Amino acid sequence: MFDTVLAGLSGLGAGTSYLFSQGGPNVIMLLIAAVLLYLGVKKDVEPLLLVPIGFGCMLVNIPLSDLMDTGGLLRILYDMGISNELFPLLIFVGIGAMIDFGSLLENPKMLLFGAAGQFGIFLTLLLALALGFPQLEAVSIAVIGACDGPTAIYVASQYAPQLLAPISVAAYSYMALVPIIQPPIMRALTTPKERVIKMAPIKRSVSPTTKLLFPIVVTMVTGLLAPKGLPLMGTIMLGNFMRESGVVARLTKASENEIANIVTLFLGLAIGGTMEGHAFLKPQTLMIFGMGFVAICMDTVAGVVFGKIVCKLTGGKVNPLIGAAGISAFPMAARVVQAQGQLYDKKNHLLMHAAGVNTGGQIGSVVAAAVMLSVLKGMGLI
Amino acid sequence: MDNAKWTFGLTMMIVGMGGTFLTLWILSLVMDTLKKIFPLASKAAASEKK
User: Fold this and answer.
1) Measured between alpha carbons, how far is residue A219 from residues A190, A230, A380 in Å?
2) pLDDT tens column, A41-71
3) Residues A105-115: pLDDT tens digits?
């Protein structure tokens, strides 16, 4: 009986003994989990994502926890919605249901800013290749530059599942850091004269029919040009079509609230579950975070430079600052532009223009990912 | 970086960035066309008549 009691007690202490013997990486990850939870709870940095990610990270790094083993809670969530890309797509339905593309439809040319804002993706791809990453891993890392969490997860889960954790954490972290990363770049690239350019107020010119047809047309056009990205564009436009149709208010509300909330919780926990210390703490992870930073900086640079070109071409009618909003971080990037504009002229209201560019960036990021996947398919790499 | 990687990277950059611009430009044209086919004014006029 004494032996049985001792055996039972050894089971109780196994976790602690593992922690001291070979749990160094897990201890570091537990500290990282604490940082993520702190940022989410106390600093309000993407709390909807960082809290479940942080908690999932904590759970999986408690020694001998079997939550990511076959049949474990986090593994079930991962298999249920990450490995088959279901969760990011469901989140896209909710995003589509939340976004009003009206400001973009008022001036469709703003979509081109959304293209310029994706430059960081392609530059980062070159950087990742130069640093020795294989092609599909490089593509997955580059998509951090889309500044769009679900798109990054969608691509990484298919083509570089081993890098999913650092890529998704980097994507969401940098999205949250947009208000800190962008302003210095915006100031460095623009002159005081350019920053105070006032843009003509937007006149309401979009009919409800146009708004209703918009998601269908976008789905058809992008689906025909870049079919590999159809799941991404199709789901975001499904949500938007439901919103604009007005006849399925219950589905729209469920998509942007209940479904998005539940999926966000599952997604965050499952991503946290991939952050096991021995797998996560590699030099690659630091490199991915570095490249993610470069990607978002280059997106901003390209957007503002494109804004300057358009400013010149239009004879000074466009404030180049709005170019910085051509990324997917919605509506954060538009607010940053508004704040920067008002820093130099309190009466300068750039928000509506920036919101149009920002929704263009949302579409642009999905189109860029869709184009990349279709090019990869054309090259026979996927 | 070896030649194959350079070729891949530059192809992705040129075709990818070009394809993104082209797709979004086409979309902007389609959106402009939609606005012309279904202008807000006709709707507003119809509601005024009522």
Assistant:
1) 36, 7, 24
2) 998 888 998 899 999 999 999 988 889 999 9
3) 999 999 999 99
Q: What is d(CA A89, CA A237) in angstroms, rounded to the nearest whole number?
A: 11
Residue of B nearest to A365 (CA): B20
Confidence of residue A38 (pLDDT cuts 50, 70, 90): very high
Interface probe, candidates A118, A125, A129, chain B, greatest B C-beta count within 10 A = A129
Q: Per the CB < 8 Å rule, is A111 touching B42?
A: no
CB nearest A375 (choices: B16, B30, B38): B16
* A366: Cβ contacts below 8 Å, ≥ 6 apart: A146, A148, A151, A222, A229, A232, A233, A236, A328
CB contact under 8 A, A205 and B39: yes
Chain B interface includes A226 (CB < 8 A)? yes
**What ipTM did this prediction achieve?**
0.87
Chain-wide mean pLDDT for chain A? 92
Amino acid occupying residue B9? G
The residue with greater pLDDT, A324 or A15, is: A324
- Domain definitions of chain A by residue range: 25-378
Taking the CA of residue B30 and the nearest CA in chain A, the distance in Å comes to 8
* Contact in structure between A255 and A239 (CB atoms under 8 Å): yes
Q: How remote is the C-alpha of A135 from its chain's centroid?
A: 21
